[in-house]
Specification:
With 546 residues, the chain is of the alpha+beta class. It has three domains: 166 residues, no CATH class; 133 residues, no CATH class; 208 residues, no CATH class. The chain contains 17 helices and eleven strands. The strands form two sheets. Strands 4, 5, 6, 7, 8, 9, 10 and 11 form an eight-stranded antiparallel β-sheet that branches. A three-stranded antiparallel β-sheet has the order 1-2-3, with no helix packed on it. β5 and β6 form a beta hairpin.
Amino acid sequence: MTIPPAWRRALPAFFVLLAVVLLLYRDTASAMVEIWNRSETFAHAFVVPPISMWLIWRQRKVLANLIPSPSGWFCLPLAAMALLWLLGDLAAVNSATQLALTAMLVLVVPAALGWPVARSIAFPLGFLFFAVPIGEFMTPQLMEWTADFTVAAVRASGIPVFREGQQFVIPSGNWSVVEACSGIRYLMASVMVGTLFAYLNYRSLTRRWIFVGVAIVLPLIANWVRAYLIVMLGHFSGNKLATGADHLVYGWVFFGIIMMLMFMIGARWSEPDAEPPQAIGAADLALSAARVSAWWPSWAAIVVVLLAPHLALKALVLSEGPAEFALAAPEMSHGAWQRQTALAPRFKPVIENPSAEWQGSFQRERADGASAQAGQVGLYVAYFRQQDYQRKLISSNHVLVNSNDVDWALVASGTGSQTVDGQTLPMQTAELRRAGGASLGDASSVNDRLKVWRIYWINGRPMISDWQAKVVGAGYRLIGQGDDAAMLVLYADKAGGDAMLRAFLQDNWGYLDAWLRKTREAARVGAVAPRLDSAISAASSSAAQP
């Protein structure tokens, strides 16, 4: 097939623009490939770019009949995606930077070649978004739905079930719904393949959307049925079958059969391809080729937009001081709460790569001056500064307990708030059960259950929303105020735990906030982080001055 003159002149410049995008944002692209490689959930993304290029190649006759011409209006959404990438990089949010990079690759097409060209290959361009490794945020909800269905189905089968969180007990043994049981892998693969099938086999948008909807719902239901069948198979086999890694193999075999049936049924309503468009006259193509020299300003503007976020990053002044430092142990000898140095921490959350961390226990004195026998409150503080993709406050790797933790298990979670000195402190709440302690249904031992509260501290502002913390943190960096942040995790025995945690915050939040603020200032100049009692004394002296 002969390439028209206009395309022979436009394509080299277009490929240069794509190379500029990949070169400028190579770190983001490399991070995407790394996630594809290490996560089975997104392993399917390796085939997305080749499939997209093949789909574009199928449209080569249609493209040959179009006249490429830059569309300057698309520099505006391109600039918006560049800004999104900048904010995502400042907040170290992989999903934002990778989504922005993919969108920029897509938007370069209409910006450099025109809207008619982009419209003719709209689906292949949109298909590239399946390469963005995003969606794991749905895992907790999918786990919840899987547990709901499995427990309900097992009970409907006449088997008694006791459930607590994502764990449940039947007469033949204990079961737990973990990340691998969520069905997120099946869902991701099904939606991608189902969308491609709908595009290739249907011309009607109605049929396409119906099939995509089926490709979303079917793997969810199939995963629920799979989980139920695995529990029943283990139950009736005396836990000899489907209790180890083999149940994952059974799951993929079951999923493959379901997908094959979905495609076989969907193929019954396939539609023929549309007729190719008529060719454009040679005179029009020659005229377009003659105007190519006038396109260079538009292409130069695209390069400027792509360069802008990198120039902005270099212009921003990074906060001074070390990324890592020592966080001194807090002392509360001045108040009603005494630090218990002889007590080892009972629980520690899973937090990766903080700049500094501290953990300890406190006990409240009785009115007669003696220490209470009960009422201990544990405190864990993880401090972050100069955050990047390896060290950041908000990360999916930060959890209270892992699903395979041998000491503690998460049985409930939620949100709440407390008002302290007129300030509302939002918090995430949770209940933990000791995995090696009492049985699943036994709540008699207070030492086997913990109430946990978690609070984010962003440059002096308390919050609990992950996305809000990311946006606020990026905003502080954008205006040159640094990205210092901390995570505070408080915990106490379940019996009276809420009251103890509430009393601890009422008595000590002002001191904790002053300590963190002093820590921020000391860390910025590279000094030793202050002890809490020193920060409190300084705060009290400052408050006493007129």
